[in-house]
Amino acid sequence: MSVHKEVKKVTTHQLQEMKRRGEKIAMLTAYDYTMAKIIDHAGIDVILVGDSASNVMAGHETTLPITLDQMIYHASSVIRAIDRALVVVDLPFGSYQGNSKEALTSAIKIMKESGAHAVKLEGGREIKDSIERILSAGIPVMGHLGLTPQSIYKFGTYTVRAKEEEEAKRLIEDAKILEESGCFALVLEKIPAKLASEVAKSISIPVIGIGAGGGVDGQVLVTHDMLGMTHEFSPRFLRRYLNLYESMSGAFQQYIKDVKSKDFPNESEQY
């Protein structure tokens, strides 16, 4: 009789406990079953089904084109692979801004159709109503401040945010508003390390950084970037743990060569 080892699932409550203990939170993106299974099995705390799928999976220049149904497709694929990680799904551009009723409908659709555990929204005080409405339905919300890629056309650039004192002050206020609204955690993207650290100290919910230094409560990277599958993207905050682009190219070229030279399949590789 095989004894099935009970896997302890990561919860929003546990993440807050981790912050209290000073244990860092590790988060990565996933958009499909196979990759999510490997990441979950490795012991990651949080998996983000990011709207970055618009870039790395669909080849769009921005995150704007991806739809709610496409996000649900990616999220469902990931959820089927998960034993342990907390799975957070991005609400895509246009599915929550400016209309808290639509925001709630979008969040409910994601949760019902994908089985995800939480949603993530970009923005501060301007989406407070949407956040509160989603939370009133019992759906956990993760916030996202700093560089908010869905607002690329407003900012006109992907450079570091909140370098000016006015914007820095507003960012700290927004972080407090998100905490008060009931968000369970917050992503801070591409802001000065000193400011990020200040934000993490001034609120009690976990702050997960990307390009925001080491003074926050956890880190997130896009999996395809940290594995070196994308090679044209090299921001300062990115550490490449592998160079899969080269390894995969090599494998593909070898396969082509073996097929052309009739080396593959050999005697033992056939029936």
Plain-language structure description:
By secondary structure, this protein is an alpha/beta fold. It has two domains: 12-240, Phosphoenolpyruvate-binding domains (TIM Barrel), CATH 3.20.20; 244-271. It has eleven helices and eight strands. It has helices at 12-21, 33-42, 53-56, 68-79, 100-114, 128-136, 152-155, 165-181, 193-202, 223-226, 244-260, and strands spanning 25-29, 46-49, 86-90, 118-120, 141-146, 185-189, 207-210, 218-221. Strands 1-2-3-4-5-6-7-8 form an eight-stranded parallel beta barrel, surrounded by seven helices. Helix 6 (128-136) links the parallel strand 4 and strand 5 (141-146). Helix 2 packs across helix 4 and helix 4 (68-79) runs parallel beside helix 5. The longest helix is centred in the middle third of the chain and has 17 residues, at 165-181. The radius of gyration is 20 Å and the shape is globular. The chain starts with 11 loop residues before the first helix and ends in an 11-residue tail after the last helix. The model has no long low-confidence stretch (mean pLDDT 95).
